[in-house]
């Protein structure tokens, strides 16, 4: 479309200029527009984008200098970058010239911004607004200032192109600059939108990451809560079933023995009835703390329910298991509480099941519920035999039990 319009105008403004020159001009104009369309709007620095755009214009046109004045929030137009013929855009990305600023309506740049129309000064040396202020020797011959807008018609700034010769710019240049400014406006708009999008994506990504982390933390919290006994702080039955698989796996693979202790506080109902439920809770908490001190980190200790605790001594044979069980029984018996001027002590009964390598015993079970049942049977025996004692599940009990 751009090319077609230009050709149309070319016909309309035909003044006898050499056709070959016009075709060269047309190709140059299209090249300027085309190279502008190749600038990536993903560049972080807006000034660098504008500088590249100015270089595209300069390298495809016979313009000598161009610069860009950006409108800031205070309504001031300040030149952020500029390129002269022969300069490479990437050679000096930082605009080294002293910053010039214009208010809306001030000078030819301010006029372009205020009117929203292209401004052309064909001979600066005879124009008061230039001769009064500027250094005449460095003054351009002619200047074109074109306002540049966003897609929503908001002013971005003013494109300023100049040449040392007066009367240099033709209708052809002006039409090209109009098209070029429109595309430059689109490019800057796209870059700004892209940057906004990047910031939004970064903000949302950070928010999402925070939510994922929070969810993970909550999940960990609830998993640990679901595996923990709220009264004593020990792990609970659910954790036990989770962890016992490991003891089984090690037993099956390496023939590591392990011992399962089922422990129950004796006559605990009496403690509750005599001293109250709160005191009963205190006893449970103290017993849990004492048990925790008596087991190794690798052992599995849980409150199995009520006044029942279970320990798995991993990689522990039957003799050691019995010794540890007796030590636990003894330690718990030595605990003391003071309540209502009375000293209270408790005892526990323990049922022990030893899981030894299969070759040694014929009655081994590979099912945790069966093993618990065996330890429970031994516990029942300890209770039946007078409490405050450790009983080991014997193979001879199998016949009775199964
Ligand atoms: N304070 C308190 N008591 C509990 C808790 N869980 C269970 N109990 C009590 O523990 C008592 C267990 O009583 P029983 O099952 O009759 O057993 P026991 O009195 O210990 O008798 P033996 O086991 O035969 O020696 C019941 O009174 C339960 O209410 C708890 O979390 N806190």
From TrEMBL:
GO biological process: cell adhesion involved in single-species biofilm formation; negative regulation of bacterial-type flagellum-dependent cell motility
NCBIfam families per UniProt: GGDEF
Pfam families: GAF_2, GGDEF
Cofactor(s) it depends on: Mg(2+)
Name this protein carries in UniProt: diguanylate cyclase
PROSITE patterns, A to Z: GGDEF
Domain GGDEF as annotated: residue spans: 256-395
Entry GO terms, CC: plasma membrane
One GO molecular-function entry: diguanylate cyclase activity
Catalysed reaction, written as an equation: 2 GTP = 3',3'-c-di-GMP + 2 diphosphate
High-level lineage: Bacteria, Pseudomonadati, Pseudomonadota, Gammaproteobacteria, Methylococcales
Signal sequence segment: none
EC numbers, comma separated: 2.7.7.65
Source species: Methylomonas methanica (strain DSM 25384 / MC09)
